[in-house]
Amino acid sequence: MKNQRKAGVVLAYLSIGVNMLIQLIYTPVMLRLLGQSEYGVYQIVISAVGYLGLLNFGFTGAYVRFFEKYRAAGEEKEIERLNGLFLIIMLVLGAFCFGAGMVLADGLGFFFGSKLCSEELLLAKKLTRILVLNMSLTFPFGLFDCYMVALERFRVQKLVLLLKTVSNPFLALPLLFSGYGSVGMVWVTALLTIAAGGFQVIYCLSGLKLRFCFTGLRLGMLREIWVFCFYIFLNQVVDQVNWSVDKVLLGALMGTGIVAVYAVAGMFNSIYMQFSTAISNVFLPRVNRMAAEHADDRAFTELFTRVGRLQFMVLGLVLSGFVFFGRAFIGFYAGEGYEEAYDIALFLLVPVTIPLIQNLGIEIQRAKNLHRFRSLLYLAAALANVAVSVPLIRVFGGTGAAMGTMLSLVICNVLIMNLYYQKVIGLDMKFFWCRIGKLVPAMLPAFLGGFVIVRVLPVERIAYFLPGVILYSVLYGGSVYLFGMKDEERNLIKGLGRRGKG
After folding, report:
1. Any residues with CB less than 8 A from the CB of 263 and at least 6 apart, and which?
2. What is the DSSP-derived secondary structure letter of residue 177?
3. How many angstroms separate the CA atoms of 304 and 315, rounded?
4. Where are the alpha helices (DSSP H) in 151-255?
5. CA distances (Å), 75 to each of 68, 72, 293, 313, in order?
6. Which of 206, 167, 470 has its CA nearest to residue 325?
7. In terms of pTM, does the model score above 0.90?
8. Any residues with CB less than 8 A from the CB of 381 and at least 6 apart, and which?
9. 186 near 124, Cβ under 8 Å?
10. Is the distance from CB of 352 to CB of 269 less than 8 angstroms?
11. What is the mean pLDDT of residues 124-149?
């Protein structure tokens, strides 16, 4: 299983790298073919339909915990009943999602009619119906993905994701050049969801021997799962609000142009988060197994800190690299009219760094069934985010929306959650921050080198941009490797390098 986790991390970062390369080539072409108006409509629809994903009520997020609970007790029949119960729930929720989505498509004019012209509104309704179909299919397919995670089959899971990522632009670009626009893009997304989900179903049923039992289903099991899932659902509401509501508010208050600019910044934020979750996601089964086996708080603290240090090393490179080279990159990537995306991205990236190096703590909370407080706290912060963002948007536009999100992140994650981890969850946060802090001096030489590079090289020109990025990456990696890493971390990097070559 340890090899599966290593392979999962390698493939996850490979997928992120491929995705970044694709975005670098594909997105600028897409922006120019669609135009700022259609791209803005596309982003508004994605944000609106994304709220339908909340209809899973956190059930898929709870699957691994209950799977590990029954596996630790050796109750194979209960695992089969768990599979049957989850399949029924996901099918019902998928059907409900489809019906609710059709209602949403018909009601778009009520929300955006004053800011979208008739052609934009017609396009939005068409895109919504296709994306709703795609979203409704992800519900039943999600069970099979969770089963692969529970069995730590990360190689296959990440390979499917990688193939899906690579296939998307190759299928979508011909449709874009043929004039099908964003409609062709979303049809490609739906077809890839069907193909990837179909493969996972076949693999789980035939390769992993997934079995279902639909007899003897207990109401008590459903009640226990629902109580646990309710607060995960609240947490999903918060995440959706924090990362999607800004675009909805901007679309309603200012129109599609600024939504397109904010979407570019949001894309960098999404990629940034993937760099963190690529590491923490592969530890989800291990954390739940530790909880099922009643591991002590010291063991959780050591795992939490070890993962956090690895995440901080990776995110330090990404964030500092964006600070030095992000403005020039956005110029290459999106072109004129998107300059504000750099400032918006910084307001999102800097404060989210702390929760990203601590996101394994979310799984520890859930494994200990102590995630209620975080969900309620984040719900209150999300409502405050909306209330603060509206006046900030009117004054500062897209940057104001990012400011509102930043305030909620700082108050919740930097201040309150660290105290909660220490006092309630039982994690030694002094130990955590001491180990994190020891990495900072090792990064300083690279930061100084970055300042020199952007002043010596005209990185606004593509001929100098790539050498500058490579030089800074080598400088950062060498500095952290030599002066910041412990021996076990250096050995891990060497092992990942050998596995990558293999």
Report:
1. 39, 40, 43, 247
2. H
3. 16
4. 154-177, 181-202, 219-254
5. 10, 8, 15, 40
6. 470
7. no
8. 238, 408, 411, 412
9. no
10. yes
11. 90
